[in-house]
Design goal:
The complex is a heterodimer of chains A (683) and B (571). With 683 residues, chain A is α/β, with parallel strands linked by helices. Helices cover 31% and strands 28% of the residues of chain A. Chain A folds into 5 domains: 116 residues, 2-Layer Sandwich (Nucleotidyltransferase, domain 5), CATH 3.30.420; 134 residues, 3-Layer(aba) Sandwich (Rossmann fold); 142 residues, 2-Layer Sandwich (Nucleotidyltransferase, domain 5), CATH 3.30.420; 88 residues, no CATH class; 102 residues, no CATH class. The termini of chain B are far apart. The chains are: A alpha/beta (683), B alpha+beta (571).
Chain lengths: 683, 571
Amino acid sequence: MSYSIGVDIGGTFTDVVLIEGSGRVHVAKGISTVRAYEQGIFAMVRRLLGKIGLEAADCGAVVHGTTVATNAIIERKGARTGLITTRGFRDVLELRRIRIPKLYDLEWEKPEPLVPRFLRVEVGERMTHKGEVFSPLEKDSVREALKALRSHGVESVAVSLINSYANPAHEEAVRDILKQAAPELHVTLSSEVLPEMREYERTSTTVINAYVMPVVKRYVASLEGGLRGAGFKVPLLLMQSNGGTMSAELACETPIHVVESGPAAGVIAAHHLAARARIRNAVALDIGGTTAKASLIEDGQVTYAKEYEVGAGFTRTGRMSRGGGYVLRAPTIDIAEIGAGGGSLVWVDGGGALRVGPKSAGASPGPACYGLDGTEPTLTDACAVLGYLDPQGLAGGEVALDLEKAQKALQPVADRLVMKIDDLAHGVYRIAVSNMCRAIRAISTERGKDPRDFDLIAFGGNGPLFAAAVARELELPRVIIPPAAGIFSAFGLLYSDLEHHFTQTLLGRLDQTDPAHAEALWRRLEAEALCALEREGYGRERAKLQRFSELRYLSQSHELSVPWQPTLEALAERFEEEHERTYGHRGHDGVVELVNLHLVASGSRDQPRVPQALEYRGRLSRKPAQRKAYFDGRWHDARILTRDSVDKLDGPAVIHEFDTTVLVPPGFSAATDSNSNLVLTPA
Amino acid sequence: MGQGLDPVTASVVEHGLLSVTDEMATVVVATAYSPLVRDLYDFTVALCNPRGEMVVQGVGMAIHLGALPSAVESILRKFPGACMQPGDVYIMNDAYAGGMHLPNVILLAPCYASGDLLGYAVTMCHHTDVGGHVPGSVPVNSRDVFGEGLRIAPMRLEHGGERDRTLLSLIETNTRLPRDFFGDLESQVSACRTAEKRLTAIAARYGNATILAAMQGLLERSERMARAEIASLPDGDYSFEEFLDNDGMDGPPQRLFVNLRIRGEELTADFTGTALQVPTAINSPLAYSRSAFYLTVRSIMSQEIPNTAGFFRPLKMVAPEGTLINPAFPGAVGAMGVTGYRLADCIYGALAKAAPHKVRAASEGGTTRYTFGTTVDGKPSILSEALVGAWGGHERHDGIDGVANIAANMANSPVEMVESTYPVMVEEYAYEPDSEGAGRRRGGLGVRRKVRLLAPQGGVLQLRSGRSKQRPWGFAGGEQGTSCRNVLNPGTLQEKALRGLETLHVPGDTVYLHVTPGAGGYGPPHEREPELVARDVLDGKISVKRAREVYRVAVSGNGVLQKAETARLRS
C-alpha cells in the first residue's frame, strides 16, 4: 500500500508526517540532530515504519524541507569559494550596495563577505551593456585566476562578469576553461542563475549558489544514499523557497532555490487549507519558538518576492532596512519574519519601556517555566502566568510546566515597572501580539493590502495561542486553526507540486512591443519548461503553465507582476490598475515598460499525494475542566478542553492539543468545520 | 508614557506609526523615476504631530532628518494647520525658508481622521535637476542662491485634491528633466497619501486621542532618554577645529570650530569661531548644519531611543549668522555637503573628548557627488553619482571599508544600471589599498571609481568632494587616512589632477577617476594584532611594505605572518 512522507527540519525539532493512501496520518517529532540532520531523519523514519509496519519500497514520495543551505550561510559553513570577475570589479561583492540597515548606528558591522578578497580574482574581458564584446576574454588571465584559486584550495567557483546578463559568452568561455583544467570544481555562472542587470545583486546570488552547492550536494548524497540503503525507491524531492518541489538532483545545481525551503512548506500547507475551505484571501501565520512568520495568500494565490536577504536578522521587518544580510535574488514565497516567538525574552529598555524579543531563549536554555536552565523571563512564561498553558505540561506532558519559575522570572520586571505580575504578563502578551502584527503589516499594509480582507490561518507550536489576539488587533474577520497545527508545515511538503520558474527579459515600452515577438518568446519559454518537466517525469498532459509579466512605468526600477493578457492594451490597463491599487496613483504620462516574461510551470500528479479525508489520532483526550485565565484586565473562568470535545463554544476557553494550545478569548466563539479545522470568530 | 496611555497600547500604536513611515518609503522607492531616488535612496520620510514636531523619523538620510523641522516650521508659519484641509499638499525647497540646497524638495501633507488633524506626512527627495546654471543643480561655483536653480517658497501644490497647474507648469519649464521630476514628485505625493490612509486606519481602531497621546509619549520618551545619555557624559567644554580644503575656489583653508558645552542633561554646540561665509557654493544652510549636529550626538546614544524631535530638545546650538554654517541671504549653498559632512566630523572630534569609547575616528569626509551633464539624441542626460566611503576605527571595532557615510545612508549606483542609462562606461569600482588610517583598529579603505565619459560631444563635469588636502583624522594614537583624489585621464599623457570642487567642460571620451579618502585609525598601529595585519596583506588591502613600516609586522607576499621577524620589529 503506497504512502507519502514529509520531513520538515526546524532549528529545534524535526517533524515527520506519514500519510497512508487510506488517509491515515502518522506523525513523529524529534529533536533535530544538528550535526548530521540526515541521521536523525533515518532514525525517525525507520522507527515510524517499524511501528506502523510499512515497507520502504512501497513509499510513493519523500518530500523534504531543509535548512541545510540557510544554515551553511548563517553559520558561515559553506564551501571554500572563489569568485572570478571582470578586471576592475574585484570588490563589487564586498562593497555591496553601501547602505546600512539602521540610522545612527555607529557600532554597526558589515557582514563578512562569503568570498574573502584574496579569493576574488579578476580576468581581462569586457562586454558592453548591449552585449557587444568591448574587449575579448584574455584566456591566460583565466588560467592564472584558476591557479591562484586552486593554490588556496577552492572547491567551488562563482563567475560573475560585468554585463554578462546581456551576453553570457565570456562567462561560458571561463567555465569551459575551468572545467577542462579542473573538472572536479563546482562552477556557477551568474548568467545562468540570474541573467539580470545590477552586478551586486547578481554576483551575491551567484556566490551564494556556489557557496552552498558542495554542502547541499554532500547532504543530498548522504540522505539519498541512506534512503536507498533503507530500501526506498522513489527519488528524493526537496521543497523550494518558491513553494514548489524540485528533484534533489536538480537542487544540487541551483541550491539557491532551496534556501528558504523550510518556511515555504507552512505557507503551502496554508494555501492548500485555504483552497479546500474556499478561502480566497488569508494570512498564513507560523509562530514557533523564536520567530513569527507571516505570508499572504491573495485571490487564491501564494505571494512571491523576487529578492530577500539571508541572515539579515529580524529585528525589523521593514523592507527598507537593507544591508544586514546576504542578498539573494530568486523567486521565493514572500514571508516576513520577526523575532517574536515563545522563547522571546522580556526586558525593559533604557527609557523604561517594556520590550519582548527579538532575542530568544531558544530551545536552550529555554523559557524559565520549562524548568531546563532558563531563568530569564520569556513570552512563554507570561503565557503560563496568564493561565494559558496546560499545568500538566506540554506535548502531552513531555515538557513539564513550572508556574512558580515563570512567576519568579517575571517578578523583577513587574517590580521595576511597578505593575502587578498578571498585568505585566498580559502586557507582555499584548506587546508580543503587536510585534507579530508588524510581520503581517510588512506583507499587507506595506504592500498596500488591507489586512481586514484576509482570514488568518495560524499554526506552528505557538500560532494558535496568539491567533485570536492578532486577528482582533488587525481586525481580521476569522481565524482558522488546522488540526495538528504544531506540525502543519510538514503537511505542506506533501501538498506541494513540482514547480519551476522561467524568466525571459523583454525590455521595452509596451506600446512599442511587437506582440508576435512576445508570443514567440513565450512559446520558447514554454518549450523549455515542458522539457524540464518531462525530465522529472511529468508529461505535457500533467503540465500546468501560467504566464505572468513584470511591468513598470518607464523610468521606474521596481516592477509589478501581473498575469499576461490577450492584448498589450489590456496588459497596460491591468498594470495601471494594479499600480493604482498598490501605490495609490497612476503614472502621469502612462508610459508603461515591459521588463520580464515570467512563466510558472508546475507538474500535477495523477492522484493527489494526500487523500481528501484524513484520519489523525495524535490528539489529546482529556476531560473538560475549568481554570482561571487572564484576559482583558481580569481573571476569567475559562473552559479547558480538547479539540474532540469542541462543537461550538464561546470564549473564554483554552483548547489543549498534543502539539499546541488554542486560545479562545472572551468575545470569540469557536467551532469545528467539516475539515476538522477550528474556526474562531469574534462575537 | 505621556498622557496616561498605558505602556502596552502606546507600544502597539508606536509600531503602527513606524509601519507608516516604512510604507511611505516603500512607495517612494517603488514608484520614483530617477536613479537618485529609486536606486541611491537619496530621500527621507517622516511623520509629524499636529504641532509639526517630528514623531517618527522614517527611513532616510540622517542629515536630512534633522533639517526637516525647519522646513515644516516654515510651511506651517505660512499655512497654519488650522487653515489646511484634507487633500492639501504643500511644497518647498528654498534654502532661505528653512530648506537645504535647492534639489532637496520637501512635500508636506496634513493627515486627518474624521475631520481632525492627526499630523503631517513629510517627504523629501533629492531631485536630479531643478534648473540653474549647472546640470544636476549642485553647482560649486555659483555666487548666490539665485544661480542655483528654481527656488520654491512654501506653496500649496494641491488644494483639496486639486493640483496647482500653474505651479507645475512653472516647475516644468525650469528643470532639465521634467519627466524625472514629476515621476519623483508623484512618488512623494503618494507616500503622503499612504501615510494618511494608514493613520486613519489606526485612528479608527484606537481613536484620535490615543494616536496623539502615543505621539506625545514618543517625544517625551526620546527626550528623557537623550537627557539621561547626556547626563552620563562628564560636564565640561570640549572643542575641536577642522579646516575645509579651501573657500570653494582657490582661497585659503576655512576653519570650522565647535565648542561643546555639556552641563547636566543639556548639551550646547557653540560654533562661534567658524569662518565667515564664502562667495562660493559651499555654505551650509542653518537647517543642514543643525542636522549635522543632531545626528552626530544622536549616533553616540543608544539605538533604543525613539528617533523623534524629542532627542533634539536638550541640544542647543549657537551658530552666528553670516558664517559658513549659517550663511546670510543670498549666499550660495549648492555644494553645502562639503561643509555639512565636515561639520559632522568636527563635532565628532569634540565628542571624542567627552565620550572616547563611543566615537569613531574621522570618516571619509562625506559623500562625493559628481555629475556629468550632456545631451543624448538632443535630450538632456544627467548622470549624478554618490561615492563613498569608509568609517574610522573605534575602540572596539575596525573601521569599515566601503560603506555609506553615517550622515547619508545612500546606496551606490549599480555599474550596469549606469551604463545602460547614460553615455558612460565604468572601468573600475574597487578599494584603494593602503589608504586606511593605520591604527590598532584601522580605518576603512577608500574607494576608486573610474568612469569613461563617452558622449562624443563631451559635457559638463561637476565635482563636489571634500578632504582633498585635509585628511581624515585618527585618534587615540591612530593615524590619518589618505586624502581624496580627482584625476582626469589617469595614466595617459593628458593626465590632469583636479581640485575637489570643479565645474568643467570635458571633451568626449574623457576618463574621470575619483578616489575617496581612507578613514582615520584608532590607537597606535604597532598595537594591531599581527594576525589582522597579515590578513589584510593576504587580502591585498595593505601592502607588505606598509605592514612592515607602519604596523611593524613582517608578512610575506602571500599573507603568511613571519612571527620572529615581527617580534624583532616590534621590540
